[in-house]
């Protein structure tokens, strides 16, 4: 591991960040389209929100197995296996004849995304020094935001030519290219696979040992995941309620992702220099406030302004969850712990759209936006309460 301790972020770029950037670009093309596909198959807005939430539920079901798999076969093989499933999942999304089949394909796509993200997270936790940790993690989060920014634009352009199928074709190309990059580039110097015969703690032992951290700080991380996922669902739904075209909604979503892209490195530097709270609390406050203000958006201009505010809050939180997980992770059973840690965030990501769907069905979309916004303010409080001071990072 010492050979990776001195690596700079630039040295990590080709082998760590490039494949993740390409993969996230492909997935970013379909992120705002899943809701629209469900609506096109006859789903109600509430049901469409539930279908979008299945992406998060897939991530939930994949988090713990991915942590165990990384320990057994390593990060690279885990990502290759995930890619081998992601392409059929995207094809199934594109050709689904009913909402049920679409939902199953979306859930499988979530499983694959969880394996990719956890593999990179586990590696960077080992590879960088603590004083560079937030910048390394926020850069990893940033390449995901680059995908969120560029993917919808590519998807919107493709949709002008071939409808909603165009966005899925862009995603298939992105996942395939990311896999090719992963295969052609040399492996990273360190891989998380534990040598055969090495004693390692079991998954449930790791969870029991660190249950206090998972219960306290993990609760705040759960709400962070809910806020991020609800943004991906509620913006398209609000755009549909305003009568905007799919291409326009995709462009607004992409502009919001552009703010994310610009802020990822400053967010990491802020956390490394002034502590994790300095970014976490303002980020969740902004995201929560943006959701609360969403019912005031009555047209393209209003929705764009709200989307920009959401992008600002989301950008400030780039790498936050991964950084906090790396700070809290043990040296023994690290991949298993990070799988459980990611589960906290993934439960929020799966629950956010489901909460929107449930409240929309029972009341209105405006009520759902305000309720999710309130959870953002609660997240800001919990993170301020449980994040350790800067000198505690190890």
Automatic annotation (TrEMBL):
InterPro entries: MFS, MFS_dom, MFS_trans_sf, MFS_Transporters, Sugar_transporter_CS. CDD domains: MFS_MdtG_SLC18_like (cd17325). GO terms for cellular component: plasma membrane. The keyword Disulfide bond does not apply. Keywords: Cell membrane, Membrane, Transmembrane, Transmembrane helix, Transport. This is Putative MFS family arabinose efflux permease. It is found in: Cell membrane. It is a multi-pass membrane protein. It comes from Actinoplanes xinjiangensis. Residues 1-392 form the Major facilitator superfamily (MFS) profile domain.
């Amino acid at each position: 591991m010492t050979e990776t301790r001195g690596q700079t972020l630039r040295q990590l770029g080709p082998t760590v960040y490039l494949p993740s950037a390409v993969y996230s670009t492909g997935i970013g093309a379909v992120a705002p389209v899943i809701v629209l596909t469900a609506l096109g198959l006859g789903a109600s807005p509430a049901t469409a929100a539930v279908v979008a939430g299945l992406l998060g539920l897939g991530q939930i079901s994949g988090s713990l197995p991915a942590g165990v798999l990384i320990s057994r076969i390593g990060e690279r093989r885990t990502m290759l296996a995930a890619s081998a499933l992601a392409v059929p999942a995207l094809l199934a999304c594109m050709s689904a004849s009913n909402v049920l089949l679409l939902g199953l394909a979306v859930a499988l796509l979530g499983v694959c995304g969880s394996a990719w993200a956890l593999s990179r997270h586990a590696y960077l936790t080992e590879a960088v020094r603590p004083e560079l940790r937030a910048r390394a993690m926020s850069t990893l989060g940033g390449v995901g935001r680059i995908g969120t920014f560029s993917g919808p634009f590519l998807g919107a352009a493709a949709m002008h030519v071939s409808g909603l199928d165009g966005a899925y074709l862009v995603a298939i190309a992105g996942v395939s290219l990311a896999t090719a990059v992963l295969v052609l580039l040399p492996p990273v110097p360190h891989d998380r696979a534990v040598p055969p015969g090495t004693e390692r703690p079991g998954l449930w032992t790791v969870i029991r040992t660190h249950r206090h951290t998972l219960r306290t700080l993990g609760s705040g991380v759960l709400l962070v995941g809910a806020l991020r996922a609800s943004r991906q669902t509620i913006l398209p739904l609000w755009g549909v309620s305003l009568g905007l075209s799919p291409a326009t909604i995709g462009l607004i979503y992409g502009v919001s992702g552009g703010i994310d892209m610009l802020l990822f490195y400053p967010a990491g530097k802020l956390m490394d220099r002034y502590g994790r709270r300095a970014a976490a609390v303002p980020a969740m406050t902004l995201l929560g406030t943006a959701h609360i203000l969403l019912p005031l958006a009555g047209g393209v201009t209003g929705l764009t302004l709200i989307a920009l505010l959401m992008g600002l809050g989301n950008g400030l939180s780039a790498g936050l969850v991964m950084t906090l997980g790396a700070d809290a992770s043990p040296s023994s059973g690290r991949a298993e712990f990070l799988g459980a840690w990611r589960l906290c965030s993934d439960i929020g990501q799966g629950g956010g759209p489901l909460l929107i769907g449930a409240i929309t069905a029972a009341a209105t979309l405006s009520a759902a936006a305000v309720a999710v916004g309130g959870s953002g303010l609660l997240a800001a409080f919990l993170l301020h309460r449980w994040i350790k001071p800067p000198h505690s990072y190890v």
